[in-house]
Design a protein that fits this description.
Strand order of the largest sheet: 2-1-3-4-5
Structural class: alpha/beta
Helix content: 40-55%
Distance between the termini: 62 Å
Radius of gyration: 22 Å
CATH superfamily of the largest domain: Response regulator
Order of helices and strands: EHEHEHEHEHHHHHH
CATH architecture of the largest domain: 3-Layer(aba) Sandwich
CATH topology of the largest domain: Rossmann fold
């Protein structure tokens, strides 16, 4: 190398923030990234508002879906995006409904906590560089359980199903969706027909609730002792 040539300066590491209310998970991520010169955990907090209040400059936020403050994944992602921050979800991914809420708000991807370290690090690296992280788990959560036949509900039909199956009467669903009550009843008949054609009959309101949970349009019921 001649005297006139200079070594280009090294790029600073991507700064990572973590929103996670289990300390062991934060420690685990710190351990995973400890020998990654391109990545550095710069901040962590139990909630999104707490992380944002720190005012730390970040390139990416790793977010758990289910936090003890009861916040919505969609709201959390929207808050982060409003602050100019992209999000990678790091979760057990056991709840398609929560994954859908986050995906709807626009995350870069979803990674299971059970994945091997190399997979997690690769996902964080890609997301920190602004790349989409497409995993089988994310696709399955968005599209529904791959073991269940998709019934092909339209967005409007999914909206009607979610309201009705959660316990609302047809008249109330009509009010909430801006549809006529007879239109709601027509949608429900079509929804039942589609489930029947897929070999997943939904004759009763309880059946519709089960199908909506299976497909991730409603959250899974929690145990009474669950936070």
């Amino acid at each position: 190398m001649s005297d006139s040539e200079s070594v280009p300066p090294e790029s600073p590491p991507r700064r990572i923030g973590i929103v996670e209310d289990h300390e062991s998970v934060v420690i685990g991520l710190e351990t995973m990234l400890a020998d990654q010169p391109d990545l550095a955990i710069a901040a962590s907090a139990a909630t999104v508002p707490e992380l944002l209040a720190q005012g730390t400059a970040l390139d990416l936020v790793i977010l758990d879906l289910r936090l003890s403050d009861g916040s919505s994944p969609q709201s959390n992602v929207e808050q982060l995006r409003s602050a100019g921050l992209e999000t990678l979800v790091f979760t057990g991914a056991e709840n398609p409904y929560l994954v859908r809420l986050a995906a709807k708000a626009g995350v870069l991807g979803v990674v299971r906590k059970s994945e091997p370290t190399a997979t997690v690090v690769a996902a964080i690296t890609a997301a920190a560089n602004g790349e989409q992280v497409v995993t089988t788990e994310w696709a399955a959560a968005i599209d529904g359980d791959p073991g269940l036949l998709d019934v092909g509900l339209s967005p409007r039909q999914r909206d009607v199903l979610a309201h009705y199956a959660s316990g609302e009467k047809a008249a109330r669903v009509a009010s909430l969706t801006g549809l006529a009550e007879h239109t709601v009843n027509d949608y429900l008949a079509r929804i039942r027909a589609k489930y029947a054609e897929a070999g997943r009959p939904a004759r009763t309101k309880t059946d519709l609730y089960k199908r909506a949970v299976e497909d991730g349009w409603l959250p899974m019921p929690r145990h009474p002792d669950q936070p």
